[in-house]
Amino acid sequence: MERLAAIVLAAGRSSRMGDLKPLLEVEGRTLLEWAAGAFSGAGVDDIVVVTGHHGDEVAAVAARAGAVAVVNPGFDDGMFSSVRAGVEALDPGVERFFLLPADVPLVRPETIGRLARAGRRQIGGDGGVATAPEVLYPAVAGVTGHPPLLAASLRAEILACGSAGQDGGLRALLMGHIARSTIVEVDDHGVLLDADTPEDLVLLRARAAGEGLPDEARCLDLLVENQVSERRLAHSRAVAAVALALAAALNERGQHLCEPLVLAGGLVHDVARSQLRHPDAGADLLEGLGYPRVAAVVRQHMELPRGTGEDVDEAQVVFLADKLVQGDRRVGLQERFAVRLVRHRGDPDALAAVRRRKAQAEAVLANVETLLGRPLDDVLPTF
Predict the structure, then answer these.
(1) From CA 176, how far away is CA 122, in angstroms rounded?
(2) pLDDT digits (tens, 9 = 90+) for 104-163
(3) 293, CA 20 to 30 Å: which among 52, 62, 110, 113?
(4) Where are the beta strands (DSSP E) in the chain?
(5) Burial of residue 118 (number of CB atoms within 10 Å: 0-12, 13-18, 19+)
(6) Where are the domains of the chain?
(7) Same fold, 4-208 and 216-378
């Protein structure tokens, strides 16, 4: 399995903010904890935090976040000096690494996972990486943000530069590799939001209020509050169990899925089942409650958007799990769709929709089994 790492830059003086940015709190967590949590939430556990100004305080928070602190004694030389310190501290076995300033803290774990998978999809079956990009950038509507994901081959070039970089620092260095770079579109404005000033912090705090995930107890409360039947509640529990088992198995193969998001999506996917167009109704409800990340998964649980690619993300995992559960029983896709194909045989439009969803589920299943390297039945619970 590919070894990934992350470098979080937290060494500066925060002059424009007036307070030390990595230690500022948003929704009960420091910016540094948010930044490190983006990586740990996607299964990237090799996290290096570069410290400098008030280094002991920052290091203590880094340890609390499960990261290793590295001191950059020359942090006043600029950000590139911290990049070099972080790169120097990486284990030699690291194959690719992320770079994230601590003041860009609201990147979602699912975005980290998407970037991690995007580079690997170009790796050939023989393990060769001749066509793999050297740099991947997340982007929203074509506007690139943080964190870039760099190939380990760039380590030597970074370390060969002076502490302030050469001819423009990190940006210029990366631009020298633009021909081997890839932009990955994501639905995550957190990649664009930094906190340089107190005014930025106000916007960041407003955004952070909607970045949390409901835990299992809150999800079950939501189902009860919205009068979901006992039968549907049992179905939701079963879908969540299948989805979580799928995500765990895929993560063992280096897929970097956010398991808490998968669990929440599986539990509340039918929160508005009694309403017309229930995926949209449920997603709208969850967005109104401040859970946009789960809402995006719920909106896709019945049918994936047209043009969905091969990347197996959290929404596809919940979509497939829902198609593998009939009532509260785990079934195969043929059994799951058989009744619907018969029920709608007199309605051409409805029948076409059922066939479309069946084809989507079969495609996702095939992709999942390719990634796992074994049949799905080997990893899923039986009930």
Answers:
(1) 21
(2) 999 999 999 999 999 875 544 444 444 679 999 999 999 999 999 999 999 999 998 865
(3) 62
(4) 4-10, 25-26, 29-30, 47-51, 68-71, 96-101, 135-140, 143-144, 149-151, 181-185, 325-326, 329-330
(5) buried
(6) 4-208, 216-378
(7) no
Three-state DSSP at 268 gives helix
CATH 1.10.3210, applies to 216-378: yes
Q: What is the DSSP letter of 275?
A: S
pLDDT at residue 22, as a whole number: 92
Query: What is the SS3 assignment for 201?
Result: helix
Strand 4-10 and strand 47-51: pairing? parallel
Evaluate whether the domain defined by 4-208 bears CATH number 3.40.220.10: no
> d(Cα 31, Cα 121) in Å, to the nearest integer?
31
pLDDT tens figures, 209-258: 889 999 999 999 999 999 999 999 999 999 999 999 999 999 999 999 99
Full-model pTM: 0.91
- Of all helices (H) and strands (E), which one includes residue 362? helix 348-372
The letter for the amino acid at 129 is V
Dump strand ranges (E) for 11-78: 25-26, 29-30, 47-51, 68-71
pLDDT digits (tens, 9 = 90+) for 5-45: 999 999 988 767 767 899 999 999 999 999 999 999 999 99
Per-position DSSP letters for 69-106, written without gaps between them = EEE-TTGGG-HHHHHHHHHHHS-TT--EEEEEETT-TT
DSSP state of 127: S
Separation CA 32–CA 21 (nearest Å): 8
Closest CA to 187 of 28, 306, 295: 295
